[in-house]
Amino acid sequence: MKTNKFLSRSSALALLAGTAAIAGATFASEAASPPNALVMAWNIDAISTFDPAQIGEVVSNEIIQNTCDPLVDFDPKDETKILPRMAKSWDVSEDGLQITFHLRDDLKFDNGEKATAGDLAWSLQRVVKLGFGNAATLTEYGFVKENVDAAITAPDDHTVVFKLDKPYPVNLILSAIAANRVATMLNQKVLMANQVEGDMGNKYLATRTDCVGPYKLMRWNPAEVVLLQASDNYWGEAPKLKQVLIRHVSEAGTQRLLLEKGDIDIARDLTPEDLKDLEAQDKVTVSRALKPTLFYWNFNNADPIFNNEKVRLAMRYLIDYDGLAKTVMHNVGVPRASFVQLGAFGALDEKEGQPFTLDVDKAKALLAEAGHPDGFETTMFIGTAPYAAPIAQSIQDAAAKAGVKIKIERMANAQLFSRIRGREFQTSLMGWATAVPDAHGNASRQIFNPDNRMEAKQTMYPSWRASYFDEAVNKEVDAALFEKDEAKRAELYHALQKEMMEKGPQAYMFQIYNVAGINKGISNWEWNGFRTYYDTASK
């Protein structure tokens, strides 16, 4: 169900009231959000599953992070620090090849059954065995189908052991795997009882959650609503608000209307103009957190045109970084041409990480060198992010001056992701969020490609989606990963970023803020670049 941009207040309230009925909650006569629920408006049309082994979208990831605890977690106040979560502590062997996690002894699933280290080891092994996109989170660190049963073990109910094939940086393993959605503890007994044709519960988790965490999924109506309910058997502090109601509202104007009237607590897709206006109002605050998400112009390097690095470089000079930063992206994102996000280990600073300016003449010269003096025609796919269309139009206008004719095609996010993962595109505007505050997080996905064959289906590698493969670059990524001297390791990443800005597979444009308009009645809304914490919010 799609909402109308000019949805009347009565229609909007009826829509929300219907959602409340699903939750078993009731709205007051003025239809304000109920006192025991967090009501959020967000574009959630990209959701396709709740299986931690398979989800890849920002929305699904945020929801799963609030229903399923990870093994360890990022500090809400400082995302570069790791805190205990299901693991109360961990030890590292002297040779760096083994990490032993000691779990809490009070972990339970939502149904009250005891959750053990065996469930967690099975859950991690399951990700690798199923082989969906998120398997890459583990396989890139040596956990593969052939060894995963021996490499991830549970010697007793409270201990999980990782046996590594190489001495990876420990903090990288903690943030990339142990704090990731793949390290959630699923209910092995329930999933195996509901498996279909050996899928280890994959179809079961398409519409459900069954794990250790503060909330559980009660209902999901695609492109309509997600309803979460606080678990009765959570080991940690109970969520302040018992329900979380996420309403699919695709239009920013409708989100703003609902927020201003107090009918929702949080609006997630407001425009820069909305944000500016709302900050001037006394009843609404705006919260921002710079997240490790890069918005970029994605090129299919298998296309004969974009296989030429000079063409890709020319496209970078058709992006009005400064103009867009002052208008469309004001308070939404910061200019960023590097593949490593600000705040990560090894990242170039703001100035070095964005050396480009809009320069049509430079673009034309590069296109002539590439054999396209008269330009060419291409297509750009975009999704429903509120800033995607104006950025696309800005590029389209600049490109036309260089002889490049761009046809823009807008589609639902789910359709866009499907086309990109199938390599069925020429160019697109995309977002990508890494899971770690380290340059390797993006280096290992944006430019490293383990297997470029179509049948390899490495869909969680943007490099693979873009058909980009360079063996020399792969070696550079590995060299930086295993460099023991941290200063030298940072230098290697600096050099790699500069190299990729000249010849890399994508044109990175902005690092995005998480931005939300928040009703003044909400307290303790917490988030950082890697996590949003529903359970701390209160009224």
From TrEMBL:
InterPro entries for the chain: Peptide/Ni-bd, SBP_5, SBP_5_dom
Gene Ontology biological process terms, A to Z: peptide transport
Record-linked Gene3D superfamilies: Dipeptide-binding Protein, Domain 1 (3.90.76.10), Dipeptide-binding Protein, Domain 3 (3.10.105.10), Periplasmic binding protein-like II (3.40.190.10)
Alphabetical UniProt keywords: Periplasm, Signal, Transport
Signal among keywords: yes
Main subcellular location of this protein, as a coarse class: periplasm
Places the protein is found: Periplasm
Highest taxon, organism lineage: Bacteria
Record GO cellular component, one term: ATP-binding cassette (ABC) transporter complex
Signal peptide feature range: 1-28
GO molecular function term, any single one: peptide transmembrane transporter activity
Domain Solute-binding protein family stretches: 82-443
CDD domains per UniProt: PBP2_NikA_DppA_OppA_like_7
Pfam family, one: SBP_bac_5
Alphabetized PANTHER family for the sequence: PERIPLASMIC BINDING COMPONENT OF ABC TRANSPORTER, PERIPLASMIC OLIGOPEPTIDE-BINDING PROTEIN-RELATED
Family, per entry: Belongs to the bacterial solute-binding protein 5 family.
Protein name per Swiss-Prot or TrEMBL: Peptide/nickel transport system substrate-binding protein
Organism: Pseudochrobactrum asaccharolyticum
Taxon lineage: Bacteria, Pseudomonadati, Pseudomonadota, Alphaproteobacteria, Hyphomicrobiales
